[in-house]
Amino acid sequence: MSEILQYGADIEIAPKNAYVSVRRKKQFAILQPATKNRFEIGINLKGQEAKGKLEGVSASNAMCSHIIKIADVKEVDEEVLGWIRTAYEHAG
């Protein structure tokens, strides 16, 4: 979260019942526990091809276009932060 907040002063953190919404002018990411052993980062990057850790979401009613699954905090690396930053930049 501390890394994401450095992207800009216009970021709004909105805790919900089951996840945390991260927004600029529009929501660009959600952070949520998925299971006991996995955390998920939802990303809004419509039109972006899924690659690397970025997986496409096929549900038409999904809040995000992509998802990144995290099983260990060490998996939050430059690739993951780069996808979140790209989503932030597209949300402006």
Write structural notes for this entry.
This protein has one domain. The longest helix has 13 residues, at 78-90. A hairpin with a 3-residue loop joins strand 2 and strand 3. By secondary structure, it is an alpha+beta fold. The protein has helices at residues 2-5, 78-90; strands spanning 12-15, 20-23, 27-35, 38-43, 55-56, 66-70. It is 18% helix and 33% strand. The chain has a six-stranded antiparallel beta sheet with strand order 1-2-3-4-6-5, with helices on one face. The protein is globular, with a radius of gyration of 12 Å. It comes from Arcticibacter svalbardensis MN12-7.
Strand arrangement across the biggest beta sheet = 1-2-3-4-6-5
Helix % is 10-25%
| Domain tally | 1
Q: Specify Rg, calculated over alpha carbons.
A: 12 Å
Approximate shape: globular
Beta-strand share of residues: 25-35%
Whole-Å distance between the termini? 19 Å
**Uncertain spans:** none
Give the biggest sheet: 6 strands, antiparallel
What is the residue-mean pLDDT, rounded to a whole number? 92
Query: Order of SSEs, N→C?
Result: HEEEEEEH
Number of strands: 6
Secondary structure class reads alpha+beta
| Total of helices | 2
